[in-house]
Every structure is written in structure tokens, then in C-alpha cells.
Amino acid sequence: MATIYLNNKILLMKTFLFLLFTTSLLYAQEKMKPEETEVWEPEPVVVTPGDYGTPPSDAIVLFDGTDFSNWQHEHTQEPVQWTLNSDQSMTVKPGSGSIDTIEEHGSIQLHLEWKTPEVVKGAGQLRGNSGVFFQRRYEVQVLDSYNNRTYSNGQASAVYKQYIPLVNATQPPGIWQSYDIIFIEPKYDSVGKQIEAGSLTVFLNGILVHNNVEILGTTNYTGLPQNKKDDVGDCCSSKNKRRSLMLQDHGDLVSFRNIWIRKL
Ligand code: MG
Predict the structure, then answer these.
(1) Same-domain status, 68 and 24
(2) Same domain assignment for residues 26 and 71
(3) Are residues 105 and 28 in the same domain?
(4) Average pLDDT across the chain, whole number
(5) CA of 263 to the centre of ligand 1 (A)
(6) CA-CA distance, 179 to 202, in Å (whole number)?
(7) What average pLDDT score do residues 154-177 get?
(8) What is the pLDDT, as a whole number, of residue 230?
(9) What is the total count of domains within the chain?
(10) Distance 262 CA to ligand 1 centre (A)
(11) Is the pLDDT of residue 238 over 60?
């Protein structure tokens, strides 16, 4: 009997303490001033936005239609053979090879515009194929995917053979399209073992098609993704270990313009 009485007393005490605690929390919350939850530092740096798609004030412009000074042949590092057009764009010169930036990059925000040929030729992967490769390893596919069925993880805006885009937001061939992409690079330890996966968030024509997906490794045409520090996709058969931004020559007359990045 005495034990039951004691237990009840403890329970009563606990309830009382709990009520006291929650009431005092609520009271403290009510007593807080709005200023107490304001954070003033650091103050974000002022950046002047561009008009839609044009580079903001802190962007690194990689291609504005003037020349190929930021680019080179991806294997030989020789000058780019692609066509420089009068409308401030460039077009793949089929067979001349993929091109990559002279500068390497880490985590970036990328803006880029692309267009597949108005004259439709080929089908599936052979229609308007190119690609944007982050650090020469991770491809976001460029393809004419307007009424052109192919494997879903290889259509336009797919993270090639890793992620199917959430929707098919492509425009018809001959129309300029935009990519806005956030690439977070994978991290490695001192012996080249990956300790943190990278990620991609991709907007195609302003529409979200990948929301912070984890990069599984190199985006290979054949075989599974590889994740060692010096692996390159089988697009890049050279032993070049550079981590630059690459645009693919897949044999089609795909055009690009207005390419800029912001370091993250
Ligand atoms: Mg491709």
C-alpha cells in the first residue's frame, strides 16, 4: 500500500515538473524579442543579376561567342576546331573531338544554352547527341529528346546511365534550351579514396529535373560507375586526369552559347 502511495507521489511530482518545464519554455518563447532570432552576420555579398540567362556580376564567363580562348581539344590540348558562329554561339565540328576548359573546376553553378539541329537526322542516341561533363567524368546528357525515344537514363538532361530526369522538359529541335546546374564535387582522402559523394541539381529550361541527386561515379557508356580519384569515364580514354568542364563531340551538329559558372 505504502509503495503504491509512493509511486503515485513520484508520478505526480514528475507531471508537475514536466508542466513546469513546458510552461516555462512557452513563457520564455513568448518573452523572446523578434531581434533575438535575427542573424546579421555574415552579410551576403551584393551580386548584380543578369537579365534572364546572362551572367551575374560574379560569374566566370567561359564562352560569350567571341572566341575559344578558354577551351582546348580535350585530348591534345590543341586549339578548338569547332565552328564559331556569327550569333555568338559555337557548333560541334563532328570528328574534331570533344573540347574542355583550360581551367579545372570544383563545385560550381553552371549556366549553359544548347540547341540540337533543326534538320532532324538519326534516331535515339544518334539524334542531336552531345553532353556536358563535369570534371570530365560526370555527364549531363544533351540530346534531341523531342519525340525521340531512347533509354530513359540516356535522354536529354539524364545524369547519364544514373538518373532519369523527373520530366522531359525538352524543346523541339532548333530551339535554344538552357541548363542551370549545381554541381558539388566528390571529396577524396589523401590516398584517393572517396569520402564524400558529389551531387547534381539540374534545371532544364527552368524546370527541375534532378533534385540534389548523389553522383554514383563516372557516367560510363559501358559498365558501372567508377569512384577512384583518378578514374575517368570511358568517354575519356586518355590518361588525362584533369578536372575540367567538357563538351562532347558525339558526331552531331549541336550548338552551345552563353556559358558561365560561379564557384561554390
Ligand atoms: Mg552525350
Answers:
(1) no
(2) no
(3) no
(4) 90
(5) 24
(6) 7
(7) 96
(8) 73
(9) 2
(10) 23
(11) no
Q: Which three cell numbers stand for residue 51?
A: 537579365
Supply the pLDDT for residue 52. Answer: 82
- The CATH number covering residue 141 comes to 2.60.120.560
Within-domain flag for 49: no
Who's near 18: CB < 8 A, 6+ residues apart? Answer: none
pLDDT, one tens digit per residue, over 16-61 is 666 666 666 667 777 899 999 899 998 888 888 878 889 999 999 9
Taking the model in full, what pTM does it have?
Answer: 0.85
How many whole angstroms from 142 Cα to the centroid of ligand 1?
6
Cα-Cα-Cα-Cα torsion 152, 249, 176, 112, nearest 10 degrees, comes to 90
Please tell me the distance between residue 236's alpha carbon and the centre of ligand 1 in angstroms: 12
Instruction: Tell me the CA–centroid distance for residue 197 and ligand 1, in Å.
Output: 22
Q: Are residues 19 and 126 in the same domain?
A: no
* Least confident interval from 7-11, 120-124, 155-159, 211-215: 7-11
Distance 221 CA to ligand 1 centre (A): 9
Alpha carbon of 189 to ligand 1 centroid (Å): 30
> What CA–CA distance (Å, rounded) separates 96 from 161?
25
Q: How many Å lie between the centroid of ligand 1 and the Cα of residue 251?
A: 10
Q: What is the C-alpha to C-alpha distance for residues 77 and 101, in angstroms, rounded to an integer?
A: 10
- Is 124 part of a structural domain of the chain? yes
pLDDT at 18: 67
